[in-house]
Amino acid sequence: MNRFYFVLLCGILFGNIALADKPNVLLIVSDDQGYNDLGLLGNGILTPNLDRIATEGTRLTNFYVAWPACTPSRASLLTGRYPQRNGIYDMIRNEAPDYGYRYTPDQYAVTFERIGGMDLREITIADLLKRSDYHTAIFGKWDLGSLKRFLPTSRGFDDFYGFVNTGIDYYTHERYGVPSMFRNQSPTEEDKGTYCTNLFEREALRFLREWAGEAPFFLYVPFNAPHNSSSLDPAIRSSVQAPDEFKKLYPDVEVEYRTTNKHKYADHATVTTPEARRRDYRAAVTCMDASIGKLLDELETKGCLDDTIVIFFSDNGGSGGADNSPLRGKKATMWEGGVRVPCLVRWPGGGIPAGAINDQLLTSLEIFPSLVKATGGETPADLPLDGFDWWPTLRGEQTSPRRDMFWKRRDHRAARIGNWKWVQLGDQNGMLFDLQTDIGESTDLANQYPEVARDIEARFQQWQTEMDASEPRGPFRDF
């Protein structure tokens, strides 16, 4: 073999080795999906592709997000930092549409939902993976700012198609009448009228066909399903939009709509019945699941599914037609149903066991450092993170290093220390629950174990002091 062909062969071989050493990442996040809303759990919902991920990977049953609603949960996922540390510790949204008000374009342009965004000093997982020569993309819900400097393509992503705020109408792509879709850094209405789950699937498949098997990639697909539809029409807003073909997979509903005098918008508003809302919610999940299946199939066709880290979870607890059983509460609450969510991880190439159930205490804060570790990247030495590398725990090599988790939403506070859960809502006395024997948080043990309650409250105060002392970040803190 002459020297030219030897060098060429070595280049090909070593190039393939380098590619194999860098696993791809497919990170999928659903929006407001219930803890029990996986088909394999037997509640009647149809999720064959999520069930496949669970069967071929590991299901986490003790997995938490960092906040019980959209924006802060997503910021913590992408930064690996508590909301109180990264600055996004509340929603970037406007409240007036909740009462039926539609902004004019000039009014909307200066509202907080338009001008607010994640502090530019924050480093995202996309930033770090891009430094490791990953191709990065997001298709779906961003929710961390809509000005150009806040958009994904300014935060480490090469490609973006999706919407920029907390929710949209699935067909018009408007948030309470405001067009909300972007392609990279430009607003677009190019696909108005098309169901958005199908659009995010389309863009993700385009990306995979270009890069899967060619170069390492980080693909983030945050669906808005099964979030309620953001419409000024109460009949639409009171449910989740879903294609008829998926609604037909579920039993017929006798009554679709009802009239109520208790709606925020007006007397005698027409809204969806609870039965129809439940069906619509399930149909939206099943439609999303079908799109997830197509992404898995594309990776399998390209021969790189087993070398791709696939992670799926819900951004917070379920709401609307969701099933959070056996947990108490729902989205926006400090109960388990607000912060404990379904999570699935598939990575045979990384030694993640198939068909396993892992009940170790883990959180979305672990995803940032774990992906950096798996992809051979480096975290800046001066960047405080609130998570750790979870791969040894998922492989069963060690127990989770996490011993506690803290949450704060305005005047609602909660902490988990071991199996103890402490919750304080406003001025009420703190409540204490033993999650090992009472996962539904039904029996308050604060009076029976006052010293435990006091100790956890003190631990919460220590955590709050640490967060307050961290380098301040916008947009909420005063500095």
Automatic annotation (TrEMBL):
Keyword Hydrolase applies: yes
Gene3D superfamilies per record: 3.30.1120.10, Alkaline Phosphatase, subunit A
GO molecular function: arylsulfatase activity
Domain Sulfatase N-terminal: start-end pairs: 23-376
Identification of the protein by name: Arylsulfatase
The family this protein is said to belong to: Belongs to the sulfatase family.
Keyword Hydrolase included in the entry's annotation: yes
EC class name: hydrolase
Superkingdom per UniProt: Bacteria
EC numbers for this chain: 3.1.6.1
InterPro entries documented for this protein: Alkaline_phosphatase_core_sf, Sulfatase, Sulfatase_N
Alphabetic keyword roster: Hydrolase
PANTHER family, per the entry: ARYLSULFATASE FAMILY MEMBER, ENDO-4-O-SULFATASE
